[in-house]
Amino acid sequence: MRIITGIAKGVKLKVPKGLDVRPTADRVKESMFNILTTMPLTITKVAVVGAKVLDLFAGTGNLGLEALSRGAEHALFIDHSSASLAAIRDNICTTKLSELAEVQRGDSVKMLAKLSQLGRTFTLVFVDPPYNQGLVNEVLLKLDTINLLEDGGIIVVEHSKHEVINIEWNYLKLIRTEHYGETYVTFLLRECACTI
Fold it and tell me: Distance (Å, rounded) from C-alpha 78 to C-alpha 112?
């Protein structure tokens, strides 16, 4: 597993041993970022360059670090596992992106409300929870009901083909789904929450 492109291109990332960590495969990650970087600004206000990134269930930090390497402004990595957090910190140091990165320990779902209460906002959110545990729609429901994702922001969800993404939201709009064998990647847009 490595950083594909950008200022940290080619840097190999550490994966915690003996844990049930499922890093995003390089081919899936490359496709994901190709979609993000070619997304028209009529759909989203910022895709990767200049993005404020939230990497939930961060595992190794793979997705957030790829975004930083490609020009994201800042990334917050959240995970509950001590081993994962140690790997994320090591990977941040190895990629020399520590000035742009922040790491917090906690339950990724519960942390959303806390971040919202602190007034934090993001333009790009990666959601890569353990497969088939019902966490995908739980996270999306939170992101739909709190003001954590800015209008025009994008959520990228990596999930099992057996997990059906809810398509009925107040402010989220499903814009694209791609599949790579058992892995599905779904892109959602936060539409304007303002009233006219």
Answer: 10
Question: What does R_g of the chain's alpha carbons equal in angstroms?
Answer: 15
Q: pLDDT value at position 21?
A: 61
Whether residue 127 contacts residue 46, with contact meaning beta carbons closer than 8 Å, is answered with no
Please give the structure tokens belonging to residue 105.
Answer: 């320990």
Q: Which two tokens stand for residue 106?
A: 């906690």
- Topology (CATH level 3) of domain 26-190: Rossmann fold (3.40.50)
**Residue 103: its H or E element:** strand 101-105
Summarised one tens digit per residue, pLDDT across range 130-144 is 888 889 999 999 999
Q: Is the pTM of this model over 0.85?
A: yes
Place of tokens 């009529």: 42
What three-state secondary structure class fits 3? coil
Measured from the Cβ of residue 115, the count of other Cβ atoms closer than 10 Å reads 18
| Torsional sign, CA 68, 57, 170, 148 | negative
